[in-house]
Design a protein that fits this description.
Blueprint (H helix, E strand, L loop, with lengths): L2 H6 L1 H14 L11 E5 L2 E9 L1 H4 L11 H12 L1 E9 L5 H9 L10 E5 L2 H5 L4 H19 L3 E4 L15 H20 L5 E3 L20 H16 L18
Parallel strand pairs: 2-3, 2-4, 4-5, 5-6
Antiparallel strand pairs: 1-3
């Protein structure tokens, strides 16, 4: 999609965005524990962080959301004891997620593996893909340096172009932006051994979505938890990667 086309559609997109935001039901974050332990064997500390999809918006309880099922699936697949914790809040973009994590005592966030779920709010907030990528780099570096994380797995943006809660042409434009963010993310993660992009081709349909047509429902969360667990189980997260001291922010 050319910049000229996007600029020409700007008045329509702004109007649709405001109307969609006003009409969309405000769903709460999932209730339930945001930390736990599951499985047995080698101890693996898992941190899940990010936006409303990480927080479980779209389902009532964390057992039907992302983090808890992901931990259980990973424990079963890898034969490990997973100590997991979730830090997430609705409305966060990637920069907000980094700021949220940096506001916590680093000693409370020590982990071996981190899963980051952000990006949709970068798109809706019109954050350029390269700016969002720079913040992802800073986020991965901070997790390595401050929290001892050995591997950071980033979830790609979902197929925004298929979100039933978004009207056209807003859905089309947002979907194109999401693909651009994903392309930048995949290209970057291919250059480093301590980060990765989860290979997730979510088969989205209205039945898998929450009532707002924007957030995942229980079927989508189950699918994502399984895909991420399989991705993590295949990573060399037990390797003793060389500690790197790199810039933590891009400001």
């Amino acid at each position: 999609m050319s910049l000229a086309v996007k600029l020409a559609l700007t008045p329509v997109l702004l109007a649709q965005g405001l109307l969609t935001r006003a009409r969309m039901p405000r769903l709460p974050e999932a209730q339930g524990p945001r930390a736990g332990r599951v499985g047995s064997g080698h101890r693996l500390r898992l941190l899940v962080a990010g936006d409303s999809s990480a927080a479980g918006v779209g389902v009532a309880h964390q057992r039907d959301a992302l983090a808890a099922p992901l931990a259980a699936q990973l424990a079963a697949l890898a034969g490990v004891c997973v100590d997991w914790q979730l830090l997430a809040r609705s409305g966060l973009n990637t920069a907000d997620t980094l700021a949220m994590l940096q506001a916590e005592p680093p000693g409370d966030l020590q982990a071996d593996v981190a899963v980051i779920v952000t990006g949709v709010n970068d798109v809706t907030g019109q954050v350029p893909s390269q700016r969002a990528l720079a913040v992802r780099q800073a986020l991965a570096n901070w997790l390595r340096n401050a929290c001892g994380v050995q591997h950071v797995a980033f979830c790609p943006l979902p197929p925004v172009h298929a979100f039933p809660g978004l009207p056209q042409p807003l859905r089309w434009v947002a979907g194109a932006d999401a693909r651009r963010h994903n392309d930048a993310l995949r290209e970057w993660t291919s250059t480093r051994g301590d980060v990765s992009c989860v290979d997730m081709q979510l088969p989205l349909d209205p039945a898998a979505m929450a009532d707002d047509g924007f957030h995942p429902g229980a079927p989508a969360y189950r699918w994502c938890a399984d895909a991420i667990a399989r991705h993590l189980a295949a990573q060399d997260w037990r390797a003793d990667h060389t500690h790197i001291n790199v810039p933590e922010t891009t400001r």
